[in-house]
UniProtKB/TrEMBL annotation:
Signal peptide per UniProt: 1-20
The name this protein goes by in its record: CBPN Carboxypeptidase
Entries under PANTHER family matching the protein: CARBOXYPEPTIDASE N CATALYTIC CHAIN, PROTEASE M14 CARBOXYPEPTIDASE
Organism expressing this protein natively: Rynchops niger
Family: Belongs to the peptidase M14 family.
Length: 411
């Protein structure tokens, strides 16, 4: 009995050591190895693909979780996490690697919650959008890393100030009853963006993403759109004017889902700042132009928030496990938020799906469109809504539906 107990204790000790060793900072090659290791452990529910390359030629890898990897299933929503957009903000990168390993391990163990999530959701995880900047920051390491060292890409450009500015067009068009969704890009937009930004724009144009978060550092708060203030008279990026989207209450709920599932974000007092409930409207904090979360909302069907996850942009390795435990439930709970509101198929009299049909919700001046197969997903808070589907060449159809607090209503 004593020998059996010693063996058990030894095995547990090995497990603890193995777990502790996994909480490391991963350079590019190590990150790639970690992703392919997860894929090899869960080959039937994962796929690795690259959306393009960085300035210095590093792949922008994405790890996908799905019961049918590589295939969009009708009525199954697409979700994404993007980390390390600023190269020196590294916690998100490590958390997404940990999340990938966690999803794989829990799926293999038969965890019902994780199994259901992977079977009902197509999850895309990009640990690093700026691998070049990360390498610059990692050379200095956490002890001597400058506040801006490695933040930008290899061309010295801040990727979160590099997307086409659709906010200005939207604010102007709103005054003349212009489009409130899928705002067209300027003709010369490709010449104005970096390779990493171009790759992401092409990526989000190719997948009908419904919900997303991009992971940053330097504060602890869940930040939701709009990031850019409508008041154009003030050019200072520190001008603070609350600038809500038509989906403001929904965005607040999404942000609170993460904040209250996080170990301490919801307390509000972090890093010398105070944010009630641990959330903030982006422009209310400080206004920034050409950011990724506003671009997602204005150009695609995707609702994205920005997660600021640590006071220290490059936390030491001994803090990574504590940070993972603080974020683990929040990362999973936020993915589950993709399953709320309404979803359905837009089809013609012969049951053929209609792509690009516009889904309008009365009282909310922001529309979404159906995907290539005719399926659509509209995130909504619980309540009763009047919803209209319209497409060129067809008579519009309007229905009234009630959204509950659990699974999405099928309309």
């Amino acid at each position: 009995m004593a020998g059996w107990l010693r063996s058990l204790l030894g095995a547990l000790l090995l497990l603890e050591v193995a777990a502790a060793l996994s909480f490391l900072h991963h350079r590019y090659e190590e990150m790639v190895q970690a992703l392919f290791h997860v894929q090899s452990q869960c080959p039937y529910v994962t796929r690795i693909y690259s959306i393009g390359r960085s300035v210095e030629g590093r792949h922008l890898y994405v790890l996908e979780f799905s019961d049918y990897p590589g295939i969009h299933e009708p009525l199954e929503p697409e979700f994404k996490y993007v980390g390390n957009m600023h190269g020196n903000e590294v916690l998100g990168r490590e958390l997404l690697l940990q999340l990938s390993e966690f999803l794989c391990e829990e799926y293999r163990r038969g965890n019902e919650r994780i199994t259901r999530l992977i079977h009902d959701t197509r999850i895309h995880i990009m640990p690093s959008m700026n691998p070049d900047g990360y390498e610059v920051a990692a050379k200095q390491g956490p002890d001597s890393n400058g506040y801006l060292t490695g933040r930008n890409n290899a061309n010295g450009v801040d990727l979160n100030r590099n997307f086409p500015d659709l906010n200005t067009f939207m604010y102007y068009s709103g005054e003349i009853s212009g489009p409130n969704h899928h705002i067209p890009l300027p003709n010369n937009w490709k010449s104005q963006v970096e390779p990493e930004t171009l790759a992401v724009i092409q990526w989000i144009s190719s997948y009908n993403f419904v919900l997303s978060a991009n992971l940053h550092g330097g504060a602890v708060v869940a930040n939701y759109p709009y990031d850019k203030s409508q008041d154009q008279r003030f050019r200072s990026h520190r001008r603070t004017v609350n600038t809500p989207t038509p989906d403001d209450k929904l965005f607040q709920k999404l942000a609170k889902t993460y904040s209250y599932a996080h170990g301490w974000m919801h307390r509000g007092w972090n890093c010398g700042d105070y944010f009630a409930d641990g959330i903030t409207n982006g422009a209310s904090w400080y206004s920034l132009s050409k950011g990724m979360q506003d671009f997602n909302y204005l150009y695609t069907n995707c609702f994205e928030i920005t997660l600021e996850l640590s006071c220290n942009k490059f936390p030491p390795e001994e803090d990574l496990e504590r940070q993972w435990m603080a974020n683990r439930e929040a990362l999973v709970a936020f993915i589950e938020e993709v399953h709320q509101g309404i979803k359905g198929m837009v089809s013609d009299e012969n049951n053929n799906g209609i792509a690009g049909a516009v889904i309008s919700v009365q009282g909310i001046s922001h529309d979404i469109t159906s995907g290539d197969m005719g399926d659509y997903f509209r995130l909504l808070l619980p309540g009763t809504y009047t919803v209209t589907a319209s497409a060129e060449g067809y008579q519009p159809q309007t229905v009234t539906t009630t959204v509950g607090p659990a699974a999405p209503s099928l309309v």
